[in-house]
């Protein structure tokens, strides 16, 4: 299926016009196509929806052929017609990263300009929309890069923290060993002093006993 047809079908399956096919949308489509309720979740996941909870156009177009072997989606969108805005979106073939409210405002203004038949203004507006989409894509890429950097920094910090904890444990173990050595030496010194005192007292007793015997 060509891209314009895929776009029209995707738009038809996007029942609530949120810019993506959510599970509720997909359920409505499957119900109209007579798909048993037990198979809806499986088919939904075939589009990769299990990863983020919805189907975007990229996932829809890349896995359409695989899912079509089980689900005849083409028959669902057979009678759909495109608005000028939808035709414009098909031409630029861009993934919209804007919110639903912004997309609706862009679409309404596009319809109004298109109805005025002002070609120059319409062309300028199309260029503006494409610039806006490119900017949103760049912002998304920057956010993803920032998230990656933050994740990497967090991993480094966790690694350094683990190393620091290991160092602290080693220092504590060494300190405990030093304290035990010092206590052992202290006790050995006390015992040696007591032993010398005892030996001296025994020697004095022996000397006193010798004097008494003489």
Automatic annotation (TrEMBL):
It comes from the Eukaryota. Residues 1-36 form the EF-hand domain. Keywords: Calcium, Coiled coil, Metal-binding. It holds the Pfam family EF-hand_7. Residues 136-185 form a coiled coil. The keyword Ribosomal protein does not apply. This is EF-hand domain-containing protein.
């Amino acid at each position: 299926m060509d891209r314009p047809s895929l776009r029209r079908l995707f738009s038809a399956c996007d029942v609530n016009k949120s810019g993506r096919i959510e599970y509720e949308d997909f359920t409505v489509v499957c119900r109209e196509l007579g798909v048993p309720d037990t198979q809806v979740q499986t088919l939904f996941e075939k589009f990769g929806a299990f990863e983020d909870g919805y189907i975007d156009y990229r996932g829809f177009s890349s896995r359409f052929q695989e899912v079509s072997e089980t689900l005849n989606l083409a028959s669902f969108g057979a009678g759909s017609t495109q608005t000028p805005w939808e035709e414009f979106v098909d031409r630029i073939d861009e993934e919209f990263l804007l919110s639903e409210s912004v997309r609706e405002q862009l679409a309404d203004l596009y319809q109004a300009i298109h109805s005025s038949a002002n070609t120059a203004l319409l062309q300028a507006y199309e260029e503006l929309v494409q610039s806006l989409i490119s900017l949103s894509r760049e912002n998304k890429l920057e956010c993803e890069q920032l998230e990656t950097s933050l994740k990497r920094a967090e991993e480094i910090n966790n690694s350094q923290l683990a190393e620091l904890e290991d160092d602290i444990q080693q220092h504590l173990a060494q300190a405990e060993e030093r304290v035990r050595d010092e206590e052992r030496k202290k006790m050995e010194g006390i015992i040696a002093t007591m032993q010398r005192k005892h030996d001296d007292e025994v020697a004095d007793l022996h000397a006193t006993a010798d004097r008494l015997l003489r």
